Amino acid sequence: MDAQGRGRAEHIDPADQWVLNPNTGEYELRLTPSAAQSAVPGPRRAARGRGTAAPDRERREPRPAPGGERDARAGRDSRAGRDGRGGRDARAGRDGRDGARSGSREVSGPRRARGAAPEPEAGRRGRRPVKKKRAGKILLWTGGTMAFLLVAGAGAGYLYLEHLNGNIESVPDDGASTGGFSKDKAINILLIGTDKRTGAGNEAYGDHGSPGHADTTILLHVSKDRSNATALSIPRDLIVDIPDCPTTQEDGSQKVIPGEQGVRFNTSLGQSGRTPSCTVRTVTELTGIQADNFMVADFNAVKTLTTAVGGVEVCLAKDINDKDSKLRLPKGKHVIEGEQALAFVRTRHSVGNGGDLSRINLQQQFLSALMRKLKSNDTLTNPSKMIKLAEAGTKALTVDSQLDSIGKLKDLGMELGKLNVKNLTFTTVPVVDNPAETVKATVVPHPTRAREVFDAIANDVSFTAVKEKKAKDKAAVAARLKGEKSAPSEVRVRILNGGAPAGSASETLLWLQNDQGVDKSENAGNAGTVLSKTTLEYAPEQADQARRLADIMGLSGSAMKPGKSVTNAQGLPTMTLTLGKDFKGAGVSLTPPTKAPDVDKSTADKVQCAS
Fold first, then answer.
1. Whether residue 113 has pLDDT greater than 50
2. Cβ(135)–Cβ(388) under 8 Å?
3. Rounded to whole angstroms, what are the CA distances from 96 to 48, 177, 598?
4. Helices (H), 428-531
5. Strands 214-222 and 397-400: what pairing?
6. How far apart are CA 532 and CA 544, in angstroms?
7. N or C: which end of the chain has fewer CB within 10 A?
8. What distance lies between CA 163 and its chain's CA centroid?
9. What pTM did the predictor assign?
């Protein structure tokens, strides 16, 4: 890759530089020549100089004489030929000397120092570990782990890849996210596609010079146990409230961009100087779900990714001739890439009712098709394609400041790669036409169904029929609610605010004492930590009291945390009720949904034809 980037290995196929190690299921980068391989079956190993690689048990190299190790290594590198041609020379039956001469011409450096140990003979060299270079080499995790990291301006593809550090572009999250995903929690990633006309060949799409909008936005929720995921599309013409957005300026200073009420969702990005962090805040305002991280991509992501993967198969139920998107395809199955793929995900006048909601369905079908292609052996076992995908992806993607390192991206990719595409559900925010408009151009959230979808995602409810896991543990949690309940007057509890709106602890105290008869309750102020969900901690001997309070508060078994009691101001044992971010007011049940609402949806493993 490094040599090719300098234009010095024009005849090298990238696939020749990656070798699949069957012991690990991973591809290993080989940039140096090797001689003919042994006929004994086993993993391919390439030595870094002439001769064959030694077996695993013989990987130790002869030690150079004191003071000569660095110069000896320089001599070996020179003879191996850093331009990558040595591998082809070796296959052609050459002894590697041409590669050495070529390497000597192109890489300046000292020859083997006087007194340094001579090169080991062919056949006796062990494989030297490949050193990592910043923005110089790609690490690929394959063997069935695939993830999706990209969405483009008009719809895009997901891709599991490792980045070249030098290609990573990041922008501040301005405190809009949670601070980054966690391996032991559910993951929420906001994928933002901008219609900004940047990149070669995109000026012809009109709106030239615009700062862009949040044209295609998907909230990707991955369950805590990684058994399922939900991709929630947010319509660009959805009427929302955009909150005030603290935003980092180019000079590093902070500026608060004023919010707006009752405006299109797509204006949360680009307009009035709003950055992706403002789109994150708008999604939180709308759904109640705070993203852990965000990613942004433009038109070029669709074009470059589909080209790199060798095209994506789509299906049309009718002929399409859209003059605006320039998509012209007869009905049936087609393999599309590049400009044609971008036209496919941008078209809307020729599908459905010609609106943005119909285009969203088309985009979801495209994403499903791309996911299947990426998960196929045709892609996973092709080193050349994986390299091209990594290059295309890193150049098309902008990430938040919490994802600006190769290690974090790799960790995220490994978590997302645990998913099975049959359990990835695509759905859209339930909406109705905007009642304030005579000519229908925008939509508003459905008064009841939208909140049901948001609550289901927030409570990690699967939208697919996932096999129940840890049934024994689930039964034990449910059993916490069963049994005798104390009288309300016997319940002793202290109340803490652990992330609920200000004043929630006082509000709950008054409600419990005046309306529910729980007069042995007290306000203990703010908790030391912020919790996403309300919890009730109690000792085993307080189980009767805990069940009564759970019944009053509408708490689920999972909110009940058996443990140790604490003492109140009077020195008496008491339970601890900590109000989390899910608290919506005194008297509002905190029992989360256990079943997904009935909404239009599709899964990534199903082939659909756009109509």
1. no
2. no
3. 11, 54, 66
4. 449-458, 471-479, 504-515
5. unpaired
6. 25
7. C
8. 13
9. 0.64
Distances 333 to 255, 319, 355, 369 between C-alpha atoms, Å: 50, 11, 23, 12
Q: According to the model, what pLDDT value does residue 201 have?
A: 53
User: By the 8 A CB rule, do 484 and 542 touch?
Assistant: no
Whose tokens are 């002894």? That residue is 95
How many angstroms separate the CA atoms of 242 and 265, rounded? Answer: 8
The answer to whether 59 and 127 are in contact (CB under 8 A) is: yes
Helix (H, G, I), strand (E, B) or coil at 518: coil
Q: Which of 231, 145, 226 shows the shortest CA–CA distance to 186?
A: 226
pLDDT digits (tens, 9 = 90+) for 151-162: 322 222 333 444
Question: What is the DSSP-derived secondary structure letter of residue 23?
Answer: T
Q: Which of 434, 420, 395, 223 is nearest to 299 (CA)?
A: 395
> What tokens were used for 177?
């996210």
The token pair at 53 is 């690689």
> In this predicted model, what pLDDT tens digit does every residue of 449-464 receive, in sequence order?
999 999 999 989 999 8
C-alpha gyration radius of the chain:
29
Under a CB-based contact definition with an 8 Å cutoff, are residues 275 and 172 in contact? yes
Residue-wise pLDDT for 159-183, tens only, equals 344 445 667 788 999 999 999 999 9
- Total length of the chain: 611
Distance between CA atoms of 345 and 320, rounded to whole angstroms?
A: 12
Which tokens is 520 given? 């042995």
444 beta partners: 432
Alpha helices (H) along 92-147: 97-106
Tokens of 273: 């100087």
- Domains of the chain, first to last: 2-106 (no CATH), 165-309+356-367+377-463 (3.30.420.590), 479-579 (3.30.70)
Q: How far apart are CA 88 and CA 96, in angstroms?
A: 9
